[in-house]
Each structure stands twice: as C-alpha cells, then as structure tokens.
Amino acid sequence: MFFLRNLSHTINLHPSYYGPHMKEFLQRNLHGDVEGTCSGRVGFIICVLTITNISPGKVLPGSGLAEFVVHYQAIVFKPYKGEVVDAIVTSVNQIGFFADVGPLQVFVAQKLMPSDFKFDSNGPCYRGDDQMIEKNGQVRLKIVGLKHQATQINAVGTIKEDYLGQIQ
To answer: PANTHER family annotated for this entry (predicted)?
Structure first.
C-alpha cells in the first residue's frame, strides 16, 4: 500500500558547500540519500514530494561539518499481510517462484500454489489446468508473511485462493 508520510533525515554538510546555494545542495543530497531506499519501519521510500522544513545548521566541533535536520513529505510503499498485489515473475525453480511488486520481492513456495500446479523444467514454469506461471509473466498474489529488517522487507505470498494466479 502507498502512503504519504512526514519523515526527517539528518544531513552533514562539508564547509565547502556553505554559501548562497546551500539549500539547493541540501535538497539534492536529500533526494539522493533517501529516494529508493528501504527502512523496515517506514517501508520503501519511493519519492520525496516536498521539503517542509530545514533546521538551522549546527556546526559539529572538531570537524567543521554542519548538521541539518531536513523534514519532508514522501510517498512510501509499505506492504501488509493479507494484501493482494500484482507482480511480475522474475525467476522460477523447483521450490517456487520469485516475483517483484515494485521494489518488493515476494517468494511463492510450491506448497502455496494450487495442487494442480506442477513444475515443468522445460521452461522452467509451473503449469496448472488453465494457467502457466513463467519468467516475466504477470501474477496476482496475496502476501501471507512479512519480515521487516533494518534495511529491507522480505515477503512470502500465495496464489492458492480464488482469483489469484496468472493475469491474462
């Protein structure tokens, strides 16, 4: 699910960047530091929308660096258990398949597929009565488990329920 969140980030600025263009440098640095990153508690930071506040800098003793706290609004992607999402299959093997939901990688084990799905090594793919799951194919899956770590989120999914599986 996508959310609009108010977040903050601390930036240390070298003295060579002090001057009239300091604010533009802080903005570029913020975008480079946080966009495309993952925090287990926040989720995947997709895009910084606006910078709401830049604190006055504090010079750090001994180094000459200035520390700024930048408050901003960002669009974040945070998946939840039970959420149904569309994904693109990235790899298929005998134990299951991996699919990407934007920046999130989801693993679907063979036990979490309908019983009629069989692995076909001549593809490789999984074939069911009326569906086939192969690399670069689109699937609709349900997230059944999440593991939040400091810099990543791991997910397990299923296609064993109604209206899940290959998207045609």
So the answer is: DNA-DIRECTED RNA POLYMERASE II SUBUNIT RPB7, DNA-DIRECTED RNA POLYMERASE II, III
